[in-house]
Amino acid sequence: MSGITCDQNSVDKFNALKLKKAYTFIVFKIEDSKQIVVEKIGEKGAKFDEFVAVLPENQCRYAVYDFHFDDTDGHKEKLVFVMWSPDTSGVRDKMLVASSKLEFKKKLTGLCPIEIQATDLSEVDYDAWLERLK
After folding, report:
1. Dihedrals phi, psi of 50, to nearest 5 degrees
2. Exposed, middle or buried, 75 (CB in 10 Å: 0-12/13-18/19+)?
3. What is the pTM of this model?
4. Measured between alpha carbons, how far is 104 from 32 in angstroms, rounded to an integer?
5. In this predicted model, what pLDDT tens digit does every residue of 63-99 receive, in sequence order?
6. For an engineered disulfide with 63, which of 3, 59, 68, 82 has Cβ 3.0 to 4.6 Å away?
7. Where are the alpha helices (DSSP H) in the chain?
8. Strands 35-43 and 23-31, bridge-based pairing
């Protein structure tokens, strides 16, 4: 993980989201280029727009979103991993988040195999996600 570790609280919060449905989303950041930590939690029932609003304009983040939707087979839920790497973020920030992603994902067991890699707000769109996840 390029020397970057994941704090246990990040794993614990993810497990609470996955197993207990305690939250709608979690946003993680790399703190001091050393450790992945929880930055924001979307409480149970938080709306998709609330998630989008907490993504910083020019800094990279990871996130997990408990995405609920209905299709022809009924109601579905998928835990979606998001790598937010906006075009306006610095090169070092982008390199850190990209090089640490795989090891971080290994700590978060039970994610949907679909990953969203977003570089601007048009890629963090509810309808676009819905089409991808159906």
Report:
1. -65, -40
2. exposed
3. 0.94
4. 16
5. 999 999 998 899 999 999 999 999 999 999 999 999 9
6. 82
7. 8-20, 48-54, 91-107, 126-133
8. antiparallel
